[in-house]
Amino acid sequence: SAYRLCTMRKLPSVLARTLTSGTSGSSVLPDMSEVRSRLRDIVGASTNWRDHVQAMQERKALHTLLAKRQEDLPPRRMKDSYLEVTLPLGSQPEIREKYLNVHNSVRFGRILEDLDSLGVLICYTHTKQEMQPRSPLSIVTALVDKINLCKKIIYPDCDIKFTGNVSWVGRTSMEVKMHMLQLHDGDYSPVLDATFVMVARDPENKRPAFVNPVVPETPEEEEIFKQGELNKLKRVDFSTASLLKMAPTAEERNIVHDIFLNTLDTRQEGEGTVSFRSRKLPPNSVWMEDAKLKGLQICHPQERNIFNRIFGGFLMRKAFELGWATACSYGGSRPFIVSVDDIMFQRPVEVGSLLLLSGQVCYTEKNYIQVRVHSEVYDADTREHQTTNIFHFTFTSENEVPRVVPKTYGESMLYLDGKRHFAAVMREI
């Protein structure tokens, strides 16, 4: 099963530092609401939509605090950014309702929101300037590299603990590794591992800004840092080989041609009369064009982040829920999330936008369903559509699912792209 492994490494106990105090142990761990109020304090964000312009104007003055070069910033250790945060679903039942789904387990979309907020706070902790309560940096999520789950069910009545720290730093970007554990019989056991990439920008979120370098201290940290370098190179390779830039490989071309031959309608008289246009669906298959769902969101001020754009976690939750519904209607039974990977945040979503989401089953294998969710904003004034995100989700269904079959060249490229993402996930788990 895909759930047999979780690459949870026990972090050294010296890292056990909480948000509220510099020591581990005695102090109560902060919860997710504290994470969000702490973020508002760091940025100086308004809690009233009418005041947000004023709050953003005040941030302009922080420009003078930006470093001119990365070398001017003090290096930090990995443990300097380490945070532990609790989600007390067991000990505080009143917050449970928000996290509950109809199957009496935890809504994964809510977990995505929490990971997004925590990732940003970890980066602010890494870049914190002493004596400076407000940060001049605007730190935003650039990419969800991967989230791999090793538990099928997240229980709604047991406490959850998130841990994480900065694992790699470029000049203006930071990789954050986070882990989620859940309390069972007095012990915290691993649920998922997540790797996010955050970028730092100036106070007005217009240009890149330098961040503190990170210095690994132990062989284990050296290994984690090296993995961050490799992740970056892997992303570059994956993007370079994108089917939007390069033709499929010879093997992939054969796959597409085989699918094409398998869908030709040969029932007509004589071999010479087979038409390229006449297609039939093979048994136990579904045309790709019949395996999609669409959704629309109006982006209200309630969903804004500390920079008054739509919160990345909200976009992830909405995309996940549409992806789940797409997999559910396709497989005919409850799907379980196995992995989330390669979510690119291509452009911010403004408050007031119309957000159009489109979920597509693009690859299937046995009981696995690979779903791609495309999100775009529609500007009613200019009548233009612009892509904001592409999401990739791997689900497993309780039963074997029908094969999804592309009909056009464009669909065949989506199919191959889905196959590539699925293969990458399978290698990980």
Automatic annotation (TrEMBL):
Q: Which Pfam families match?
A: 4HBT (PF03061)
Q: Please state the protein's primary subcellular location.
A: mitochondrion
May I have one GO cellular component term? mitochondrion
Q: How is this protein named in the record? A: HotDog ACOT-type domain-containing protein
* Location relative to the cell: Mitochondrion
Q: Which organism is it from?
A: Aptenodytes forsteri
User: What InterPro entries does its record include?
Assistant: HOTDOG_ACOT, HotDog_dom_sf, Thioestr_dom
Q: What is the lineage of its organism?
A: Eukaryota, Metazoa, Chordata, Craniata, Vertebrata
| Example GO BP | acyl-CoA metabolic process
Question: What Gene Ontology terms describe what this protein does at the molecular function level?
Answer: carboxylic ester hydrolase activity; fatty acyl-CoA hydrolase activity
**Keywords of the record:** Hydrolase, Mitochondrion, Repeat, Serine esterase, Transit peptide
Against SUPFAM superfamilies, the record matches this protein to:
Thioesterase/thiol ester dehydrase-isomerase
As for family, the record states: Belongs to the acyl coenzyme A hydrolase family.
> Domain named HotDog ACOT-type: which ranges?
81-204, 289-401
